[in-house]
């Protein structure tokens, strides 16, 4: 079983086998997440898909407070080390077996830079394969044929995909992505935060229902057992 807690945009916490994985910590600056206290969030691991501010705004303070192992691409990890964060693990596109399972860093079709405009490496997503639950988080991406490789690494129980459009996939693209990755249980992220990515929730859910799939559009601050 996997527990999923949504903190807005693409920031969420997954708990599997008593281990807490925080993804893309952006809460401060998100008006929709103003009731979330970042000091209440605990994590054993922090995974960062790319360097944009709406994925990294709270990365340093949460990493400092929790002491979590931060996993991301080489460029983001190097930048973190320059900020004094030392509990880190750099990756590029490939797989590594940690104590919690095998993590694969996959390509995403998206840009990546730090808030000052400097290079933040290539954008990516993560596949986590464990004895307890397999999930795929695509990160910010458009629809891409590389998603067809995901089942090569693991049979995916749950996938977390962006659905806001404009900067990433929209709901229709996410339906096709679910075909590519062979997963019928989808959680939508990266929606509603800005004007460009506001969506019709009911219409998005209906697109999945029409093809016998499930789309969970999570509420900020809510947890879900999956």
UniProtKB/TrEMBL annotation:
Pfam families tied to this protein: Lactamase_B_2
InterPro entries xref list: Metallo-B-lactamas, RibonucZ/Hydroxyglut_hydro, UPF0173_UPF0282_UlaG_hydrolase
Domain Metallo-beta-lactamase: 8-190
NCBIfam families the UniProt entry points to: PRK00685.1
Protein name: L-ascorbate metabolism protein UlaG, beta-lactamase superfamily
Annotated organism of origin: Niabella drilacis (strain DSM 25811 / CCM 8410 / CCUG 62505 / LMG 26954 / E90)
């Amino acid at each position: 079983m996997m527990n999923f807690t949504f903190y807005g945009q693409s920031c969420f916490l997954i708990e599997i086998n008593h281990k807490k994985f925080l993804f893309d910590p952006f809460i401060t600056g998100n008006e929709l997440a103003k009731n979330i206290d970042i000091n209440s969030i605990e994590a054993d691991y922090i995974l960062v898909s790319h360097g944009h501010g709406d994925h990294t705004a709270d990365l340093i303070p949460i990493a400092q407070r929790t002491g979590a192992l931060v996993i991301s691409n080489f460029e983001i990890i190097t930048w973190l080390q320059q900020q004094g964060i030392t509990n880190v693990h750099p990756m590029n596109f490939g797989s590594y077996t940690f104590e919690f399972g095998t993590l694969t860093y996959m390509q995403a079709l998206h840009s990546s830079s730090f808030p000052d405009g400097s290079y933040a490496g290539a954008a990516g997503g993560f596949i986590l394969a464990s004895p307890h639950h397999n999930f795929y988080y695509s990160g910010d991406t458009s629809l891409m044929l590389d998603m067809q490789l995901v089942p090569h690494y693991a049979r995916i129980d749950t996938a977390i995909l962006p659905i806001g459009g404009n900067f990433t996939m929209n709901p229709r693209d996410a339906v096709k992505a679910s075909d590519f990755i062979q997963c019928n249980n989808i959680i939508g992220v990266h929606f509603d935060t800005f004007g460009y990515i506001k969506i019709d929730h009911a219409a998005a859910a209906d697109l999945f229902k029409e093809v016998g799939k499930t789309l969970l559009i999570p509420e900020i601050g809510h947890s879900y057992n999956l």
